[in-house]
Amino acid sequence: MKFLKGVAVATTLTLSLGIFSTPANAICMGMACMYNRMTPLQAIMATEYSVEEVIKLIDVNADKADIITAIKTTLKATKEINANDKVDRNRMRANSSMKAARKAVKGDDLVTAKEYLLVAKERYAGLENMLVLTQDDRTSQQTHFLNRILGTVDEGAGKRTSNKK
After folding, report:
1. Mean pLDDT across 14-34
2. Residues 6+ positions from 84 with CB-CB distance below 8 Å
3. Which residues contact 163 (CB under 8 A, 6 or more apart)?
C-alpha cells in the first residue's frame, strides 16, 4: 500500500508539473517571451518602415494624438532589436531621437519633429551594419574560446589580424 501511495503521489506531481509548466515554457523561455517575434534584421526593417509611416503622418498634417501614438508604437517595436550590446546601445540612441520627436510634436513643432525622425531613421538603418561581425572579430573570438576550452595559451588570441586602424 505504501508503494502504491508513493506511485500515486509521484504520478500526480508529475502530471501537475507537466500541465502547468509545458505551456509556460512553450510560450515563454525566460525573458525572451517578451520579444523575439522576429530576427533583429527584420525588426530593424520593420522599425524603419514604422518611422517612415510617422514621417508620412507629419507630412499630411495628421492629428497630434495620432502622431504621438505612432511614435509610441515605433518605440515599442524597437524592443525587438536585440542582437548584441553594441546594437542595443545604438538602438537606444536612435530611440532618444524618437523621444525628442515626440516631445517636439507635443510642442506643436512638426518641422523639428520631422528632422528628429529623419535622424532616427538613419540611426536605425545604421544598425544593420552592426549585425555582421567581421571575419577578424569572429576568428579572434573563436580562437580565444577554443584556447579556454583546451587550456592552451595562444599569444595571438584576441588580436586582430588585419591592418585596419
Report:
1. 53
2. 130
3. none
Which single residue is written with the C-alpha cell 517636439?
Answer: 104
> Looking at the domain that runs over 36-130, which CATH code has it been given?
1.20.120
Q: What are phi and psi of 16, to 5 degrees?
A: -70, -40
Mean pLDDT of the region 134-156: 60
Angle CA 43–49–54, to nearest 5:
125
Pick left, alpha or beta for residue 36 (phi over 0 → left; psi -120 to 50 → alpha; otherwise beta).
Answer: left
d(CA 26, CA 52): 34
Q: Are 62 and 16 in contact (CB under 8 A)?
A: no
Q: Where are the domains of the chain?
A: 36-130
Q: How far apart are the first and last CA of the chain?
A: 77
Eight-state DSSP code of residue 134 = P
- 138 band by pLDDT with thresholds 50, 70 and 90: low
Tens of pLDDT, residue by residue over 43-76, are 888 999 999 999 999 999 889 999 999 999 999 8
Grid coordinates belonging to 24: 509556460
Helices (H), 78-134: 85-106, 110-130
